[in-house]
């Protein structure tokens, strides 16, 4: 009988040890899952924070561009936006190209008319804006730095003119 009692005690002890070990394994496993969840939550929060910061930065940049453009516009009697970085303004009869990146005005000397007009490139199917200036009696397409990119001569250009580039030739758009 002593042997049976020892066997029963041994079996009970083994079952208790197995039960405790199983319980410990479940506790450790749950702890590992919680830690993984915490790490995942932390990574998601950091990623969301980065996205929020980038979105806020873009929103602030957009606001600053719009705000700066509106401040610049107030300095001119006439204003036309060329692209994201440039505008054309007129003040006291003189025309200026404004560079938003450098925050500088470039005077178009000897210019009595200037317009921002669309040019459609048929080969790329793209439309962009260009500065047309009547300077020294001839029309020019101007570079953003105020120099002439292309001399057009004595063309008939108005604020409603539209142009097209086809086969590398600039012409009026019909």
Please identify the structural class as seen in this structure.
alpha+beta
Largest sheet: 6 strands, mixed
Number of self-contained structural domains = 2
Please state the oligomeric state of the protein chains shown: single chain
- Low-confidence region ranges: none
How much strand? 35-45%
Query: What value does the average pLDDT take?
Result: 84
Strand order of the largest sheet: 8-7-6-5-9-10
Cα Rg: 37 Å
Helix coverage percent? 40-55%
Q: Distance N terminus to C terminus?
A: 114 Å
Query: Strand-and-helix sequence, N→C?
Result: HEEEEEEEEEE
Number of separate strands: 10
Protein name: Lipoprotein
Description:
This is Lipoprotein. This protein has 174 residues and is an alpha+beta fold. The protein folds into 2 domains: 74 residues; 96 residues, no CATH class. It has 1 helix and 10 strands. A 6-stranded mixed β-sheet has the order 8-7-6-5-9-10, with no helix packed on it. A hairpin with a 4-residue loop joins strand 3 and strand 4. The longest helix has 72 residues. The radius of gyration is 37 Å and the shape is rod-shaped. The model has no long low-confidence stretch (mean pLDDT 84).
């Amino acid at each position: 009988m002593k042997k049976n009692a020892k066997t029963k005690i041994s079996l009970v002890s083994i079952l208790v040890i197995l039960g405790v070990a199983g319980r410990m394994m479940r506790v450790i496993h749950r702890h590992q899952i919680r830690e993984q969840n915490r790490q995942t939550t932390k990574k998601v929060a950091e990623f969301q924070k980065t996205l929020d910061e980038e979105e806020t930065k873009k929103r602030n940049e957009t606001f600053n561009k719009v705000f700066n453009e509106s401040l610049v516009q107030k300095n001119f009697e006439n204003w036309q936006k060329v692209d994201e970085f440039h505008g054309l303004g007129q003040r006291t009869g003189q025309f200026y190209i404004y560079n938003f990146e450098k925050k500088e005005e470039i005077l178009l000397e000897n210019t009595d008319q200037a317009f921002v007009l669309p040019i459609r490139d048929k080969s790329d199917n793209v439309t962009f804006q260009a500065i047309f200036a009547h300077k020294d009696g001839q029309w020019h397409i101007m570079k953003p730095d105020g120099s002439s990119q292309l001399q057009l001569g004595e063309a008939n250009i108005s604020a409603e003119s539209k142009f097209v580039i086809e086969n590398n030739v600039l012409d009026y758009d019909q």
